[in-house]
Amino acid sequence: MMKIACTTLACPDWSLDTILERFAAYGYDGVDFRGLGDEMNVWRLEAFSSGAKATAKKIARSGLEVSAFSSSARVFIPDPAERDKQVAEVAEYARLCRRFEARLIRVFGGPLGQTPLEQALEVAAATLRRMAEAAGEDVTLAVETHDDWTRTRPLAELLERVSLPNAGVLWDLHHPYREGGESPRQSYDNIGRYTVATHLKDSRLTGGEKYEYCLPGEGDVPLAEMVALLAAGGYDGYLTLEWEKKWHPELADPEVALPAYAEYMRGLAGRGDA
Predict the structure, then answer these.
(1) Into how many domains does the chain fold?
(2) pTM value > 0.70
(3) Is 274 contained in some domain?
(4) Cβ-based neighbours of 145, under 8 Å, separated by 6 or more
């Protein structure tokens, strides 16, 4: 059965202790670390380096799991030296995965700029293979439907080329629908078999192609249809709220958004405690 999690983008002003206390109180099962406070690369923090053992115990006592570490690494960057840095970042997060018994690292596709898609696919596939080797067989990389990889067919082609058991897709349920113009079925047919993680949020149109994020059910993203497709296909990973309060301070505060989304996602996941 699917579990629910939330990324730390939702609560940029909360301490680690507050995150654990409130995520657990709201009914989440996991926490996806996308930064903490002002530091986006949590492996640089004392709590995740010299203090990692104590932090792991604290998380376990809260009843939560580390559902993922969300990196900034990109599989496509034209500069070879920069690609080396992306692989090194994945290696750092892989070490955290082993310390915290996590199994997933989010990576981005990266903007293509003027690079033709075929050339970008070659570079991205080679880099993703290097990342998968650096991560190790027990850690899975999930390339998000984001930036120039929002439309799902190119992302499916990337995974087809790589064809590794520890490389998959993070289906941000919002972006292909809202920004890529895809139906849930179209997205699922392309990447459903590769989906190892999800991001979930709702939005509503505000005029033309502009939209604003909103509380669950106040928008029109067909999240229930998407989750039903995943469930029918056997997906049993996390439904993860990505409430980007850090990047969009105008969004509802975490004290409002997080409990509302937790209740909503438990219903989508078919949880008895919904």
Answers:
(1) 1
(2) yes
(3) no
(4) 152, 155, 169, 170, 171, 172, 175, 176, 180, 187, 191
Residues contacting 30, CB < 8 A, separation 6+: 3, 4, 5, 64, 65, 66, 67, 68, 238, 240
Helix (H) or strand (E) holding 186: helix 184-191
CATH number at residue 80: 3.20.20.150
Residue 142 domain-assigned (yes or no): yes
What is the DSSP annotation of 140-180?
EEEEES-GGG-SHHHHHHHHHHH--TTEEEEEESSHHHHTT
What percent helix, strand, coil does the chain show, rounded to 5? 45, 20, 35
Note down the domain range covering 44: 3-268
> What is the mean pLDDT of each successive set of 10 residues along the chain, which is 274 residues long?
97 98 98 97 96 97 98 97 97 98 98 97 98 97 97 98 98 97 98 98 93 97 98 97 98 98 95 51
15-49: burial string, b at 16+ Cβ within 10 Å, e else? ebeebbebbbebbbbbbbbbbbeeebebbebebbe
In a domain, 174, yes or no: yes
